[in-house]
Structure formats: C-alpha cells, structure tokens
Amino acid sequence: MIAKEPIEEDECLFEIPRNLLIIPETSEIRKLLTDEYSSIQSPSGWVPLLIALMYEHTNPESKWSPYLRLIPDFEELDLPMFWENSEVDKELSGTGVPDAVRNDIVSIEKEFRDLVLPFIKKHEPVFPKQCQDIEFFKKMVSFVMAYSFTEPDNITEEDSHDEEGSKPPPMMVPMADILNHVANNNAQLCFGRESLKMVATKSIKKGEEVFNTYGHLANWELLHMYGFAEPYPNNHYDTVDIPMSLLHKVAQEGRFNEELKLLEEKWQFLKSMSIVEDSGMFVVGTEGVMTEEELYQTLKVLFLSKAEFNDLKENEGWMESDDDEDTDILTNDAITRLPAEWKVLLERVAREKMCQINCNSLEEDEKLLKSEKWTRISSRQRYSLYVRYGQRQILLKLVQLCKR
Hints:
single chain, mainly alpha, 15 helices, 10 strands, about 10% strand
C-alpha cells in the first residue's frame, strides 16, 4: 500500500467493522461451530477458525468469496513447512526454524486427524470432499499463519469460550492483511470494541509504502510464520535462541570428579527452582539478553563455591540481591561488567552456538552478499541467509562483549 498523499501521525487510514472480520462467529456455519465447540478445541485454538475458512473457501456463494479470491495463490505462501525437510535443514540448521517446522507438522496432523476430519465427516453434506484432504488443511493453516491477527486479550469483556489464561484465537482481517511488515513500521492495527482501525504511528510522505507490524518478531519467527525475513541490520527485534542444555554442556567441559558432581547438583537445583529446563532457551537480542533473569541467576549459581551453594540450599533457594541493583540486567553494556569467569563461559557458549548454524560460515555468507551470485539465488536462500546472518551477528557481538 502506497501513500497517495501525505499522512499525518495518528491519522486513521481505514476502519474495519467487527462484523466484517472472518471468525467462527461470523461464518455461515457459526451455529454448527458453536453447538459442537467442545469437540473442536485444541491447544492451538485455531481449529474453529480453520474449519470456518475451509467452508467459506469452498463455498462459491460465500459472502467472503471476493476477499478470498484476492488472496495470493496458496502456492505463493512459501512457508518452510512446505519445503523439503532436507532444504530446511540445509539452509536453517541451528536457527530454530527446523524444530519449529517439525513441531508444526506434528501438531497440524494431530489436529486434523483427531478433530477436524471427524467433524467434517460427521457433517459431510455441509463440506465438499476437498475438506477431507490434509494438504488442503495445511494450506488453510499457512493462510492463517501468514495473514491472521491476534487480538490483545484485554480489549473486550465480551463472553468467550476461552479458558482463563488461554491465548486469544486468531482472526482474519480483510484489508489490514494487505500491508507488509517491517520492524520499523509506520502504521499499526488498533483494536476497538466496534471496529479495528489501521492508524499511522508516524508521518508518512507521499509515495512511501505503508508498513504494518506483525509484532516484535525475530527473523527466524518471520520466516517460520510468514515466509520472509528482513536483511541485517533492519530487524532490531532479531534474536537468537541458545538452548539451556547447550550452556549446561559447555559448563561441563573440563570438569571432573567432585567438581563435575557439584556442577550437576547445581543444575538440578536450578531445574527444581524452574530457572532452567531441558528444552528451555536463553534468548539474546540485539541490545542484550532478553531472558536476563534466568541467565543471570543460572550463571550466579553455577559459579558459587561449595559453601555458598550449601548456604543457598539451606535458605531454600533465596539469594540476597547484589549491591548493584542493575547487575542482573544483561544489556550489552552490563555484559561487559560481568565477572571474568562468567564471560569466559558465555563466550564459549556463543561460539558453540555459531558452530551449530552450519550452512556456510559467516565469512561465506558475507562474501555471497557482496557477489553477483546474490541476485540469482532463490527467495528461500535469500531469506534463510538473512536469518543465519542476523543470528551470527548477534552471537559475534556477544563474543566481543565477553572479551572486554
């Protein structure tokens, strides 16, 4: 969307009444979905919307047909879930995308098999045969991933089927979904009780593109859910996930006998305090560590002496706060002031994580970015490189901070 005239900050670009949103409550089969709501609930919360979309998309007389015809062909929704597994692993190993895709596929197939297909077959006269095809269902999932919006859970007080603490389900918002995303956006969707409004967050000059935001998303999340990523350093929300298990593994190196036994006791203590977990992640962003409390407390416990650790256990996990109130805030600047032994461990972990991103090296990716070959690579390769390169830059920055 391009601005034909100058747009002022806070100006409303367009407004969508709530009755034009595509949600289960506005679908032609809303009564069917409401009556059997309990039978189509799942951890994702997406199934009612997906069934509604399957019906509306295959119904030529649906009031949503004009909108659905404007959506790009599903083949253009080139999400990694549609790539070959070998390509995902080759281009994105170590970035978090392959694991997310595998988890998606398992969840999608389970929800289709256990909830969607039985519902469709029970109401076979309502749904065409196409709706019993899992590949069609996967395309509906990709459509929701790439185009839907999720409402903040504090907007309305209307009655809902959602359980307390559950994430609000997604919704399709015609018109709003045609705007592209950048981290440095100039517009955002505002949710009101009667309607949703796209509002300029800053002045926009004539001829400039209007960009929405899909949220504070790292490049790997953008590629996973939307099929694109931003070039470095445009995405200031970019992050890299460091497995907690990797820090545990690196901390074990060079420790033997009693020293290793003490380390393992400390790790189990951290797990009992819910500070770390086997599948957990430490998240590092462009401005520092985002899971700062977890990482700070982990490092602190791991480097306690045996006597200090015994005192900690006797106090049932309660630790006195440091004299400097800001020492547990792991911004880039604060990382440089950490104890030397902490920084040595963090540097080793960052280097190990860089090795796990094993498609090309940082130097090879930098060379590719500057070569003529860059213009000839596929969009999959280009966006994958953006993900790898951004994560490696964050890790390289962490290494440099630890060396100061």
